[in-house]
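Page 42, continued from yesterday. The earlier attempt failed because a stray header line got pasted into the input along with the sequence. Redoing it now with the clean sequence only.
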Amino acid sequence: MRDLIEIQKRPVEDVLKGLSASRGESIEAGQTLVRSAAEFGLGLRAYLPLSIDTRAGENATKFAELNGYEASLAFLNLPFRNDFEAGIVLQAASETFQKFPGTRAMFPEVIDDMLKFKNRQDQIESVAPMLAQSRTIAGTELITPLVDDDSAERDSFTVPELARIPVRTIRTSQQTVAMFKHGSAYRTSYEFNRRASLDILTPYAARVARELEISKAKAAVSVLINGDGANGAAATANLGTYGADFTNSKTLQHNYKALAKFLMERAKNGTPVDMLVGNFDTYVELMFMFAPTGTVGLNRSEMEAIASAGGPMLQLPIMGGAVQFAVSSAVPANKLIAFTKAETLEELVEAGSSISENERSILNQSITYVRTEVTGYKLAFGDTRTVLTTNT
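This time it went through. Structure tokens are written below.
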């Protein structure tokens, strides 16, 4: 894997040279472009802005206000929407992909842009709300657990003069982060590409994007519950321990006080909860905690009334606030995963993991729209998670 600082900026016509030439030359140029991006662990959407100087070369006056990726689309005549007033027709992209096979390296990016323009789909199940951070890696990575030192005073961070400062060690384990490829693809025939407009693919691309997020969320939930190999399974607790009342068909929605006690205990123990993850049934249960009771004043729910006096305010995905909630169908029934978001789950994305898929389309008559990601998940701290059972 080469260092990103080695990328040299060149005019757009130099970076994309040969893509709009004869069939054989276009294929060779497309393969070269894909491999150049892969050397740095980047997809074309990230590689092109880093490698193209839009203010240099013979097209500087036309593309000076664009970034390298946008200039590439314009240079190769790859629009992602119709703009009849400007004389731009989406069918031009289909013609470009058909006439110059090397440009098919850009096919997934053009479809993604088309999807964003036509339909900004909300991802109900998404891994992003669960993550402390997401970063790109070049290869395999070992899990790095945290180890407390043997100082008897490590529980107190008021350090007396000349006393030993508590030290925690981050060490490398012998276990690697498990990486999995998520995603799917649609392959279009030669006849389809010749006759059909690209926007026919919009609903299919939307489903690919949604299913990709669901798959990643399932993998993340598995690590949150079961651990990552170096850090064990999450601690468990029962809502009943905190005074929940399940008599007379009462459920989670009737037990905000017990949930608040659980949240307060976690905060008192030094691992405050700011993220809850549950399935769709649990989402509905929590949603009905907001139902007005008519007995607490101003037509508020019991939860809102307590929160106004300083209690923890739970916020569902449609809102923003102190304790967030994320939906994942992978969470078992009657369970809530409670954790400290900034200290818990890290996503690792394998660099250039989808670039090889682009290259396959260059060599075949069919064009394949591929959305894949190779990701893995690991824990920063092992003590920040609790799986709360909400029906006992």
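Notes: The chain has two domains: 1-102, 122-158+165-172+218-356+373-392.
Reminder to self: strip header lines before submitting.
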